[in-house]
Amino acid sequence: MGKVEENKKKKKDAIVNSAFTLFIDNGIKDTSIADIMKKAELAKGTFYLYFKDKYEVRDYLVRKKAAQIFENAIEELKEKNITEFEDKIIFIVDNILDQLSNNKILLKFISKNLSWGILRHSIENVPVNDGETAADYIEQLARESDRPVRNLEMLVFMIAELVNSTAHSVILYQQPVTLPELKKELYPLIITMIHSFEE
After folding, report:
1. pLDDT for position 68
2. What pLDDT digit, counting tens, does each position of 156-191 carry?
3. 52-135-120 Cα angle (round to 5)
4. Gap between the Cα atoms of 73 and 71, Å rounded
5. Residue-range domain boundaries for the chain
6. Does CATH number 1.10.10.60 belong to domain 1-51?
7. Residues 89 and 163: beta-carbon distance below 8 Å
8. How much of the chain is in helix, strand and coil states, percent to nearest 5?
9. Beta strands, E only, the chain
10. Does 1.10.357 match the CATH number of domain 54-196?
């Protein structure tokens, strides 16, 4: 990376990191571009070299944070000796739930702003390991399975929606059950879902 590119990256990182802190502390609605740039210690006009508005920064952050969570889960899975596709998916889900449980602020930010479009972009486009995306890795897991899976994108969508919709209140408020209780009921449902997509 040349000096110009490195300088651009530093400025973009400063904007993104400042925005994340302010979004968490004040909410997106009550955070202005001027606030972000003041915290980043950059001129306000610099913002528009990188983003068109604060909602584009929000979407970038959600994609980046979601990709980091996937990357952590995938890296830990690679260290395990798990052979079955369904067990690998359960491991990834379990790891993601534990990461979010250990970082409730991140959960609040992501779950408030996560749509399938943003999640899909993270899975399909954001590298999580040596240029490999989460989608590449999940497709590889499916190909390696003894039982081929049809319509993998829909399966991932349904699992993501199920996990996102059930885990939010459980992790943040322990309502209507605790996280271990949710996992006990959730994982058999995910396995059943996977089996229903097998060819």
Report:
1. 87
2. 889 988 988 888 899 999 999 999 999 999 999 999
3. 40
4. 5
5. 1-51, 54-196
6. yes
7. no
8. 75, 5, 20
9. 127-129, 132-133
10. yes
